């Protein structure tokens, strides 16, 4: 493609940018994607992290969350998503709560053992039926222009709408459940990646919870076969096959705007112009590139990647192949989550650290080489909560070591053997452990503050009093400049691995300019 003839430049080759590129190129637009790194996918990528270890790790994002199946099918992605046999396991003294998928007798029995009766499991099932009804109403709207809140409220009902979108989530959790462990399991879905608490009046926790439950109408987050890199590769192939030009190693230093379009200035001094620009980067990064002022967000998670020779034994006696098959909740009781938030808010890394662990290879062993498979090796992903970026600024290396110890403290409390006995070592004899704080995430994939959502999540709908007059506003991708649209996680409903930011930006642009061929529609 001749640079002078690009219709659209997309800054950032993460998964949302690739979704937009595929849709726009297929609709007849001449699309140029600029990616600073040598590979595409951004945080949706896989990498061999440990020298001499044939394990392709999902280094940043690790599950596919809100990506609609209709969009996967429409793009023709060669992608298999698998369900985990276990939703979660939460070990506590004397046993633990096992949430099977689908739930069966073992689930009911575990609730009764931990909570002392049948009431909490009945409340659990009732709560999830109610949340599923909310998802049933909201999920079908994700591939269209933003709906109005009133329209969704009419479908959901006033009581549930108020509880989930107008009152702090803690009130609902405390009204529905009495057991501390059960309350904590519910709350964790509201805290992933953000620094907040159950009763935050800003309702950040509610918005995070909503994104966890609306995906595909079920809220199930699935395992991509081949790792997250398989999703990145499928999207790269789809965009390229549609005719988009994908250029790696192209770091954008500045964006200049004008009435007729936008111009990007690359690190090598070259200048590229197009009628429209899609910003597949955080809004604060876009502000910096355009010379505007913006306050960067603050991420609040620590990601730890490990490879083990075998799964460690659990103190509860549960088979590790079951306990690690879903999300293993550690130190995430309701009271402990509140305590850890207070500790972090006071400037201390919580110890033991509330975190959750996931084993990709129990569901999809394909990310391991033949030798590791034969040895019985597995990968473990640890996701630590309540570790805001501010805790790592003064002493990044020291704080990184401290947060690792705090996470291992949580894990050691539920293991029947030392984790060190199970860890694989790399070609240099080092344990296969990689720790990424919010500052490390920022450095690796240019997410300001290490914020995995690029900032606070938005409700995936329009307020009833919102005045919208442009396609960009209707689709939730508007910026201060009419020729620049957001297409990443910072768009109105772009959070998590969903592709919705890219889809919304593409649809808004085609509505703005009129497609060369009709855009897709979804029932």
Notes on the structure:
- Strands 7-6-15-16-17-14-18 form a seven-stranded mixed beta sheet, sandwiched between helices. A five-stranded parallel beta sheet has the order 9-2-1-13-19, with helices on one face. Strands 10-11-12 form a three-stranded antiparallel beta sheet.
- The protein is of the alpha/beta class.
- β1 (8-11), α1 (15-26) and β2 form a beta-alpha-beta unit.
- It has helices spanning 15-26, 69-75, 105-115, 119-138, 149-156, 158-165, 169-176, 180-188, 204-214, 228-242, 283-290, 320-323, 334-345, 360-363, 370-375, 396-412, 438-445, 471-475, 500-513, and strands at residues 8-11, 31-34, 46-48, 56-58, 81-82, 86-92, 95-100, 223-224, 245-247, 252-258, 261-266, 271-274, 276-279, 302-308, 327-330, 355-358, 378-384, 433-436, 484-486.
- Helix content is 36%, strand content 16%.
- α1 packs parallel to α10 (228-242) and α1 runs parallel beside α19 (500-513).
- It contains 19 helices and 19 strands.
- The protein has a domain at 3-44 and 68-77 and 225-297 and 453-513: FAD/NAD(P)-binding domain, CATH 3.50.50.60.
- It is globular, with a radius of gyration of 23 Å.
Strand order, main sheet: write it out: 7-6-15-16-17-14-18
Q: What are the segments in which pLDDT stays under 50 over at least 5 consecutive residues?
A: none
Oligomer: single chain
Estimate the strand proportion: 15-25%
N- to C-terminal separation?
34 Å
Helix/sheet category: alpha/beta
Count of discrete alpha- or pi-helical segments spanning 4 or more residues: 19
Shape: globular
Average the pLDDT over all residues and give the rounded result.
95
Rg value: 23 Å
């Amino acid at each position: 493609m001749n640079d002078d003839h690009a219709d659209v430049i997309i800054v950032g080759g993460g998964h949302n940018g690739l979704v937009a590129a595929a849709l726009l190129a297929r609709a007849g637009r001449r699309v140029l994607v600029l990616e600073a790194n040598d590979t595409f996918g951004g945080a949706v990528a896989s990498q061999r992290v440990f020298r001499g270890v044939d394990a392709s790790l999902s280094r940043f994002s690790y599950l596919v969350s809100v990506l609609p199946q209709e969009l996967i099918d429409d793009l023709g992605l060669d992608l298999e998503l698998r369900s985990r046999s276990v939703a979660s396991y939460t070990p506590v003294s004397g046993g633990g709560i096992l949430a099977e998928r689908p739930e069966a007798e073992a689930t009911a029995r575990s609730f009764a053992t931990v909570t002392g009766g049948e009431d909490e499991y009945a409340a659990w099932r009732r709560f999830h039926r109610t949340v599923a009804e909310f998802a049933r109403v909201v999920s079908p709207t994700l591939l269209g222009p933003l709906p109005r809140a009133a329209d969704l409220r009419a479908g959901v009902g006033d009581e549930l709408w108020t509880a989930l979108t107008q009152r702090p989530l803690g009130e609902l959790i405390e009204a529905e459940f009495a057991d501390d462990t059960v309350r904590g399991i519910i709350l964790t879905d509201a805290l992933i990646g953000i620094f907040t608490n159950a009763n935050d009046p800003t309702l950040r926790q509610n918005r995070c919870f909503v994104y966890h439950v609306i995906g595909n109408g079920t809220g199930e987050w699935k395992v991509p076969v081949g790792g997250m890199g398989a999703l990145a590769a499928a999207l790269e192939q789809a965009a390229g096959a549609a005719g988009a030009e994908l250029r790696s190693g192209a770091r954008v230093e500045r964006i200049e705007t004008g009435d007729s379009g936008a111009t990007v200035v690359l690190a090598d001094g070259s200048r590229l112009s197009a009628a429209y620009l899609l910003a597949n980067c955080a809004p604060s990064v876009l502000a910096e590139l355009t010379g505007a002022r913006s306050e960067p967000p603050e991420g609040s998670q620590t990601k730890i990647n490990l490879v083990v020779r075998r799964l460690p034994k659990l103190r509860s006696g549960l088979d590790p192949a079951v306990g690690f098959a879903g999300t293993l909740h550690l130190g995430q009781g309701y009271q402990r989550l509140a305590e850890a938030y207070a500790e972090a808010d006071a400037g201390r890394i919580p110890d033991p650290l509330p975190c959750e662990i996931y084993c990709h290879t129990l569901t999809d062993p394909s990310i391991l080489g033949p030798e590791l498979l034969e040895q019985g090796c597995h990968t473990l992903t640890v996701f630590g909560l309540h570790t805001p970026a501010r805790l790592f600024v003064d002493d990044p290396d020291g704080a990184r070591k401290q947060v690792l110890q705090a996470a291992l403290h949580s894990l050691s409390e539920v293991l029947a053997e030392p984790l060190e006995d199970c860890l694989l070592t790399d070609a240099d004899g080092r344990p296969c452990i990689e720790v990424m704080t919010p500052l490390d995430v920022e450095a690796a994939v240019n997410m300001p503050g290490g914020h995995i959502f690029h900032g606070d999540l938005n409700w995936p709908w329009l307020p009833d009093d919102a005045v919208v007059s442009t396609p960009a506003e209707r689709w939730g991708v508007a910026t201060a400049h009419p020729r620049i649209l957001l297409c990443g996680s910072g768009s109105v409903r772009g959070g998590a691995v969903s592709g919705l930011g890219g889809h919304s930006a593409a649809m808004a642009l085609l509505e703005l300019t009129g497609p060369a061929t009709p855009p897709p529609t979804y029932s």
